[in-house]
UniProtKB/TrEMBL annotation:
Name of the protein described by the UniProt record: Fmu (Sun) domain protein
Binding-site positions, S-adenosyl-L-methionine: D269, D316
Residue ranges of every copy of the SAM-dependent MTase RsmB/NOP-type domain listed in the record: 155-434
GO molecular function: RNA binding; RNA methyltransferase activity
Lineage of the species this protein comes from: Bacteria, Pseudomonadati, Rhodothermota, Rhodothermia, Rhodothermales
InterPro entries: MeTrfase_RsmB-F_NOP2_cat, MeTrfase_RsmB-F_NOP2_dom, NusB-like_sf, RCMT, RsmB-like_ferredoxin, SAM-dependent_MTases_sf
Signal peptide segment: none
Length: 434
């Protein structure tokens, strides 16, 4: 059956909306989705289709920003022209676009679109890949120092593809098969994740927070890579477990499920606002064994009281987020080598603060959603040099004990990323206190 192609008239106000949102995202320290939501809240009259157009175009432009600017041969802040160029190259769905292009700029736009499709690239490999995949040179260069060019290129390409919608089944309330069936009944087909025993990948992206299954606390949205991190703790019912950088509590809730709601689970963070998000999530998930504490004002009493007591401590450290660029493409333009250096020091201090909590024979799991060796392997080597009482154990073996076969691991660390596992990029190390 022939499909009918429609022509979509792109209104100048849509272009203006994209430009306004993009300018704000590039200027603001807030993540792109927050800025976008703020914009939509201010423009309540925008229809569903207008919103979809603006959101998709903004995200597409953030993914290809540098290559667009390179092809446009204009200042990167000529966002109107870059938006038209993006739409000329990528379009919107299957529609033929009728773009609001002035006759005098049509030629320039078509020439720029040709340059986008066949860019003239410099000889320097970091700059060439940086332009092709719209990433900063310093980031690509850091990867080229430790990986072959083909591997780096596969990584760059995978980080530019949109991420799937993945959920973690709340095993306190249901098993994976039941939740898959419930989602299907509500119109959302899914398939099991290949590695995590409790994950489902939705066949299509959708707003699933309105489903009854979600409201009943049967699942949480969580990337499969993130699910594997909590499994590395092998947290069990009755244990003392600490989630040292709990944030909104994605991993805390998973730890609670692994503990079957039994034992003591501490969720710490320095940002009260992040921990506050966790409260309603624990209620929905039927989690009752979590104690939330905002550091640092009570760090001394709470953290010191736990010295030598924890069976497992998870440090899901603040990081560059270079492993989650497919979800937060704007981060590529906000993170700098100076910021990474500051994060490395922060991570070191957090590890130092939490290591004493681990009991003899207990474990410390360090994780980031970074793909930079300085925040990952190098951080752990620094820690092990200072702490001979800890030993690195192979993460793949920890997962194998739980029935998870895990390919592509060449050493004791866990490394997953879009190009190899289809997950977000995560790094983890499991350290046992002897
Ligand atoms: C990667 S996020 C955690 C994400 C969370 N574990 C999850 O799975 O949803 C890192 C968190 O570390 C917190 N953080 C930063 N410095 C900290 C510190 N010194 N002690 C504890 N938490 C800290 C940040 O506020 C942030 O929420």
């Amino acid at each position: 059956m022939a499909t009918e192609t429609t022509t979509l008239r792109v209104y100048p106000v849509w272009i203006e909306a994209v430009v306004t949102v993009l300018r704000e995202i590039l200027r603001s320290p807030l993540p792109a989705d927050t800025v976008l939501q703020q914009f939509f809240r201010k423009h309540r009259k925008m229809g569903k289709r207008d919103r979809a157009f603006v959101a998709e175009t903004v995200y597409g432009m953030l993914r290809h920003y540098r290559r667009l600017a390179h092809a446009a041969r204009r200042r990167a802040d000529d966002l109107r022209f870059l938006t038209l160029l993006y739409l000329e190259v990528f379009g919107f769905g299957d529609a033929i676009l009728d773009l609001p292009v002035r006759p005098a700029e049509r030629g320039a736009l078509e020439a720029a679109a040709r340059r986008f499709r066949e860019p003239d690239l410099p000889d320097d490999p970091a700059a060439a890949l940086g332009i092709l995949y719209s990433l900063p040179d310093w980031l690509v260069a850091a990867w080229l120092e430790v990986l072959p060019r083909e591997t780096v290129e596969a990584r760059c390409a995978a980080l530019k593809a949109p991420a799937p919608l993945t959920v973690r089944v709340n095993t306190l309330k249901a098993d994976r098969g039941t939740v898959q069936q419930r989602l299907l009944e509500e119109g959302f087909p899914s398939r099991p994740t290949p590695y995590s025993p409790v994950g489902l990948i939705l066949e299509e992206k959708a707003f699933i927070f309105r489903t009854r299954a979600f409201q009943e606390g049967l699942f949480e949205v969580q990337d499969e890579g993130s699910q594997l991190i909590s499994l590395l703790t092998e947290a069990r019912p009755g244990q003392v477990v600490v989630d040292g950088c709990a944030g909104g509590g994605g991993k805390t809730l998973h730890l609670a499920a692994l503990m079957e709601g039994k034992g003591r689970l501490y969720a710490f963070d320095i940002h009260e606002a992040r921990l506050r998000e966790l409260r309603p999530r624990t209620r929905r998930a039927d989690v009752h064994n979590v104690r939330l504490h905002v550091l640092p004002h009570n760090r001394a009493s709470i953290v010191r009281r736990l010295y030598g007591k924890a069976d497992a401590v998870l440090v899901d450290a603040p990081c560059s987020g270079t492993g989650v660029l497919r979800r937060n493409p704007d981060a590529a333009w906000k993170i700098t080598p100076e910021r990474v250096a500051a994060l490395v020091e922060q991570q070191r201090q957090i590890l130092e603060a939490y290591a004493p909590l681990v009991r003899p024979g207990g474990r410390l799991v360090y994780a980031t959603c970074s793909l930079l060796p300085a925040e990952n392997e190098q951080q752990i080597h620094t820690f092990l040099n200072a702490h001979p009482e800890f030993t690195l154990i192979p993460a793949a073996e920890v997962l194998a004990r739980q029935g998870i076969a895990f390919p592509h691991q060449t050493d004791a660390f866990l490394r997953v990323e879009p190009a190899t596992h289809g997950t977000d990029g995560f790094f983890a190390a499991v350290l046992v206190q002897s």
